[in-house]
Structure formats: C-alpha cells, structure tokens
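Hey,

The postdoc asked me to send both predictions to you directly instead of through the lab channel. I've kept everything plain text so nothing gets mangled by the mail client. Protein one:
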Amino acid sequence: MSTQRKVQIGLVGLGNIGRTHIRYLSTMDNVELVGVCDTVKEKADKFAVECGTDAYYSHTELFDRSGLEAVIIAVPHYDHTTISVDAFERGLHVMCEKPLAVHVNDAKKSIAAYEKAKLENQSLIFGIMFQERTLPFYKKLKDIVDGGELGRLTRVTWINTAWFRSQSYYDSGDWRATWAGEGGGILTNQCPHNLDTYQWLFGLPARISGHAHIGKYHNIEVEDEVTAYFEHEDGMIGHFIVTTAESPGTNRFEIIGENGKLVYENGKIILYKNRISMLKHLRESKSGFEGVENWYTEIPVKTGAPTGHKVVTEKFVQAILNGGGELIAHGTEGIKGLTIGNGIMLSSFKKTIIDVPFDADEYEGKLSELIKTSRYKKTRTSELESDISGSFSKA
C-alpha cells in the first residue's frame, strides 16, 4: 500500500499573515510543515510547539537544516527579495506573499535568481500569493473581458476604498507605514491585489499620472490616499481610486467597451449590453443625442467554489508534486502590478505623466532618499495580533 508523498514546506514569518498560512497548512494532507521561522525567538518557539515542528530564527538556518523543499515567505516586504533569492540559490520552490518586492529593481533580482535556478531544475516552481484571482466575481470579469464580449475597451474605472485601516493598525508592528520598513502605504500593502487584478484584466498601461497623498488622514509617513489615471496603447483609459481612510468604503468596478458596460458592485455584475457598437453608432447615427439601445442583464456567478490562500497553495503544492503545472499566479507576474504601483508613486513625486516602462533606478533612488530623510517615529510598536481574515476581499 503506497502512501501519498508530502511536500516538505517551511514557513518564514509568523506575523498575522504567517498565522493565516499555519491555519490552512494543518488541514492539507499532502504537506508536512518541517519548520517555522521568525527572528523573534519566543514567537518561533511558540508556533513550533503548536504545529509540532521545529523552530528556526533565521531563514538560512531553516533552509540549511530543516530538510525543506519549498518555502512560503510571509515577512515584511523588503525581506521578500533577500529570502527568495537565497531560496532559489538553494534550488527551493518558492511561494511569496504579495508584493513580490517593494520596487521593480528588487523584483528583477528575484526573477533573475529564479531563472538562473531553473536552468538547473526545469521543474522549479515559483508562485505568488495573489489569492484574489480565485474570487468568483473577479474570475467572471476576467472571463468576460477575455471573451471579447465588450469589443474594444474604452474606459475602466475602479473605485476601491473598502480598505479601511485605523491608526492602531498602523501603530502595530514597527515596520508598518514607514519608508524604511514597508516601502510605501496602501499601494504597497493593501493594493498589490488590486494592481495585479488590473493588469491581469487589461495589461500594463503605457502612461501613468499618479496623485498620492502622504499621511493625509493617518499619522504615517506613506500614502493613504491615491488617485491614478492610466492611458493604454490601444486608447483605453483607466482610473484607480483607493484609500485606507474611507468608511463605509466602496468597491465599484466599471468596464466600458464598444458593445456595452460591465459594473461590479455590491456582490453583483451587471452587463448593459449594447444592441450595436457605440463606436459605430456615434459615427453613423443621424440623431445628435440618442444613445445606443441597451439591455440590462445580471450576470450569473457561481460562488460555491473554494477561494483564498489555501487554493493558491494547493495549486503550488500540486505543481511541485507533478513536476510542473498551472498556478493561480506565477511569481514572475508580480513585477507587473508592482510596475503600476511604483509608476503611480514616481509620477506623483515628479508631478508629471510618466511613460511605462520608466527608469526603475530613479524610483529606487527616490525611495532611498525618503528612507534616509525620514523623521517619523512611532509612538507605539506593539504587534496587533488579530484574525485578519475580515480584511481580505470577498469579491
């Protein structure tokens, strides 16, 4: 009687998101958690006992002593690069929490390390935790956009202000909401999912005009409100509006094409289907004011399938076991949403529209300057330990 092979996984980072991973890993029959790691010894020891595994206090110690073959990286953002590069140099499979990195240059380092390691092992797996790609309404939007029902896309407007965070949230953990510890605010912490979903649906814009407000509502040194305008090569424009200071927040997604309009809001996707192309109508109509006849349809969305972090990791584990396979999101895709986020901030700093791709060295230099000149001092650094599942999108 054969027994199922288990993937030997190590977890680096035991903060709130690390604990989220622990909860579902314990339910997976094809995974063995061979080590947990945190630089805070007491935390590593505590969770090692709870999980029945070994504690490590540095990621290199975990890599070199635990016997793992794959790692989940759930640490503060700047460390994603160092840990992923060290993992790939050892030939380990990597699942990285979002964002892939703080800035584009660091993302390129992780990707380069992966591509080099892949020359030795073509079956090496690199995933990124974009669990919002598993959410049914976003999957349906992807299906409709890719299916071409809307024809030529003309405008996308995404207002997503359902990211409320209190001052106590920012005061928890000495790395939060600082240029040196986190590398940014809402774009770096909450919105990597939104930025990924945007590029997943529409690709990268060709030009970005960003307007980021630093500590407008919170006592923080990074952005907590952002409005951005995108221009795509095919003529489509985009608007991206986010903040952590709005309650009640809004999540309204409008996608307009020549053949109609999609609106996702309040758990519904509505399609206003044009009877003919609006572009054809505006060229040929004899009426100066009459719009296109359109039909209102609520798009059915199946919501029963599993979603979230576990689904992403299940795909990752299956790919390891099978020597390859489909992932929810490949790690190399993480640079795309990061490019949009860095571009928004660079445009805002320069107060001008910028082209994509932009000078990644310029943005890294600006970030280094902000780190050096930062005078922000936290008044409270105790860690906020809580169930953060409510902060995840339920789209």
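Protein two:
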Amino acid sequence: MRSHPEILRILLIVLVFGLLLMNYNTLLPVYTRSQLNLGEAGYGMLLASMGAGSLAAAVLIALKNQWFQRVYLIPLFPGIIAVLYAVLPIISQYRLLLPIFVIYGFCTTGFITASNTLVLQIGEPKARARIASTYNMMLNGFAPLGNLISGISLHVFGIAASFYWISSLVIGFLAGWVRLSRTKGGDAKALALRSSLKK
C-alpha cells in the first residue's frame, strides 16, 4: 500500500464506510420504533426495500459492469448515504422512506463493487490475496465497532443526533478525501487506470 497510495486512499474510505455507514442494524430498529412508531412489519418492509435496492444494483452490475468501475463512484456512493442519514430524522411518512432505503441498498452494493474492483485492479497480481483480505478487514472487521459506537450514541444523544453527527463526519471526511486525492494524485498505474475508466 505504501507503493500504491491510491489503494491506501480507497481502503481509508472503505474503513470509514464500514465503521460509520454499515450500522443500519443498530440505528434502524430504534429509528422505526421511536420516530415512526412502526412494528415488526414496517421494519421488515424497510429491510426489504434495502434488499430491493441491492438486487437492482446487482442486476445492473451484471449488465453494465464497466459502469461500476468509474473512480468517482467511490466517494459518491458513501456521500449519497451520508445525505440520506441527514434526511431520515425529518421524515415521518412511511411511504417516503421506502425509496430512500432502496437507494441505500443500491449505494451500499454499488460502493462495495466499485471499491473492491478498483483496489484489485490497481494492486499487483501477486498481492491481490493480501489486498482482498485487508479490504474485507476494513469493510467488515470494523462494522462491529461502528455498531458499538452507534449504540452508545443512541443512548447518549438519541436517534436524530446520531444520524446527524454520522452524516456530518462522513461528509467532512469525503470532502477531505476528494481534496487530498486531487492534490496528490496517484502512482502511474493508478492514473493510467483512472484515465482508461473515464473513457
């Protein structure tokens, strides 16, 4: 990763995604009960909406795989989810939530596909097993810690404030990430890959 700073930057955003945006299983039950007063059926429909979004992304990936290899999608998908986090506390109508969770599921699957594909393409073939292991550790290994942080935040600050500070933190990180990426660029292989993906 030291020899390929582009990989390091992608893995940093994967870490933030796993830590702060994979915590729906902690936030969503409290959100549906305290803010929407929904029972198990309503909670299940929101999860089903997320599944529908993920399925739509999977089908689109199968049909248009090249589209998900565009570099700009890596910060875009987490950014969309962060905006959704900021919007959720002000929505009280159940029907408006279903398309939001469809988008959440779509962006989650899209981000995992785009980021995983790019780090494996940039990395050396002999190092791909280690890169894949590190990627999974960043994405899934930090999710339990993110759930713990979200649970503490729910207990101390409540559901709305938890959504707001997570959204603000992710958007702030993404702004710095994009600025750093533009300033430092990347190594020759990453730049060549980026230019080829833009075509």
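Summary for protein two, as requested: Residues 5-198 form a domain with the Growth Hormone; Chain: A; fold (CATH 1.20.1250.20).

Thanks,
C.
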